[in-house]
Amino acid sequence: MFFRWFAAVLLSSLIFVMASAPVMAEVKSSTDKIAGKFMELDLDESESVTFEEYKAMVDLRALTRFNEMDANTDGQITEEEYRKFWAENKARWYRLNR
User: DSSP secondary structure string, 25-87?
Assistant: First the structure.
């Protein structure tokens, strides 16, 4: 009788602990992570990325880079500004073995 009661309590405790334990997150590959990041461009949640959604990201990146190059913020990039930008940032943007 004690054994049945003890087994029932033990089993109940085990079920409670297992139900309370956090669920292990699925391990994602680097491709899964990149694809997930890409799908964040899907602003209308259609489960696909339109050209307009993709282009908005490209335009934002281009504007960001342009503003980084335009040191005096006059809306134009001189050769001097470009050379300075390139000298300070080439390691970040340029990879010899592409």
Answer: PPP--HHHHHHHHHHTT-TT-SSS--HHHHHHHHHHHHHHHHHHH-TT-SS---HHHHHHHHH
